[in-house]
Amino acid sequence: MRKSKAWWVGVVLGGVAIACVPILLVDYTLNAYVERNARNKLELVAHSALGLAEIRLEGAMAALVDLSAVVEGCDQRSMEIMRRTATVSIPIKEIAVLDDSGDTLCTNFGDGGEPRAISRELPLADTRFELALVRFRDRNDRALRLRLDRRNTKPLGALIPADFLVPDTVGGDFQDGRSLRLALDSEIVAARPVGDEGLSVDHMRTLGVVLKSERFPISVVVERPRATLGEEYRDVLTLGRLCSALITILSFAIGALYFRRNRNDPLVQFREAIKNGEIVPFFQPTIDIKTGKLVGAEVLARWRRPDGTMVSPANFIPLAERSGLIYPMTQALMRRTVLEVGDAHVDRPHLNVAFNLYAGHFANDSIIQEIQSIFGSSKIRLNQIVLEVTEREPLPNLDLARDIIGRLQKLGIRVAIDDVGTGHGGLSYLMKLGVDAIKIDKLFIDAINTERYSQTIIETLLELARTMKMEVIAEGVESFDQVEYLQRKGVNQAQGYVFAPALPASSYIALIEATDTSAPSAEPKAAAAA
Ligand code: C2E
Ligand code: CA
Ligand code: CA
Q1: pTM of the full predicted structure?
Q2: Which of 365, 397, 523, 524 has its Cβ near the most Cβ atoms within 10 Å?
């Protein structure tokens, strides 16, 4: 079938769209992989940073608990102990005795310490402790203050500088744009690189991980700009995209090959032809040679290609039979016959229409159901139908065939053996199948008046037909001599170029109508001329 420009544009656009699918799919998968991998690394950093901060806080808590047993107030001895502890305990920079409102009474340095602002204190799971953020007024530095409440005496406080909680080294060198922040509740304690960026993560712009401590009201945020991922994973992305391009090119090549192969595959072409209604019925009239009247027609398949060329059945029937497409083809022909010549048959019950069946049609009885569904309520009645079973191909199962033929006959359908004398059937077909008619092949008709042997065969067949009460139809009758001979021998019906070739539906209908009005003569060429 010739495809339109729009069809090709559609195919190209469709192809491009299809090509985009694997590319997008691979890209999506790659990005997902890169993101997962990068996120895992960020989680690792977040876990180690949070773990370190927790260890520092726990160390400070333990130190305060130890101190609480020995520090009584701001006396000399207590101050000395506080000084010693501050020196040996890594995270603690300052130890203080606090008043009940949390203000510093004295520290290990003696006085009340540097000016500072202390945030709202947050309780810990261990209810003796509270944690607050300390901002120093004179420098841009922060610390956490751990407060231990004691029974009957003043609370103790320990100051843990941000640098001890989040060392500069944590999480590597931050060269890939990565940043890390430690927060107490929602307030930033320390940021690496330095700079107060708040807690929230802009997921569009950055890939971020927020990890909350289960033991302390602190959390860690680690993030990196998405833009830096491409740089780090360049090799993976390049390789992946290369693969996807290769897959796409390969799929296209395979697709094109498949498409080409399919386009040139006769089977594919023939299947399409059936689907597109390119297999059409032609009608070869059958004439009653005694009266010259039209008896009906045999449906002969033609493949009418879109460019108007006609393909004869010899070029596609063998393929149809081999591939099994003969079944849908026969059905299509039957339906189309109803459409094209149904009207001409409604009021002419004497007109028959014959279809050629394939031996495989008798391998099971589904043909009965098919014919009933096509013709059951159509303008062509079942008793107008003749089915031709060729003798050329052996029937798969003679008993089953006989049964099917019997059931078809009960519906009023007549069955004829086609190409009699040429094939496998021989006399056994005529004896066993119980058909209504035989069609004597052109081979024997051609030999009339030239070969005695063929005439003997014809006479034998006619004798047999008479005995078995079968109608005889002569095929491929091409000359008046042959018609005369057949008339003399008592043959009633004939088909052949001497009357008419297979005609398109319109010509056949014109012939039907012409023979309706004018009283047809027995003169053979009259039909063909109509
Ligand atoms: P067939 O069933 O024996 O059909 C008779 C063939 O002889 C037809 O050829 C017809 O056009 C041709 N013919 C008829 N009168 C004359 C004549 O006087 N002289 C000559 N030389 N030829 C004549 P066609 O249409 O080419 O069909 C060939 C064969 O293809 C058919 O032989 C039949 O076996 C098969 N065929 C055609 N249509 C169908 C179909 O719908 N189903 C099946 N299963 N086979 C079909
Ligand atoms: Ca036939
Ligand atoms: Ca035949």
Answers
A1: 0.61
A2: 524
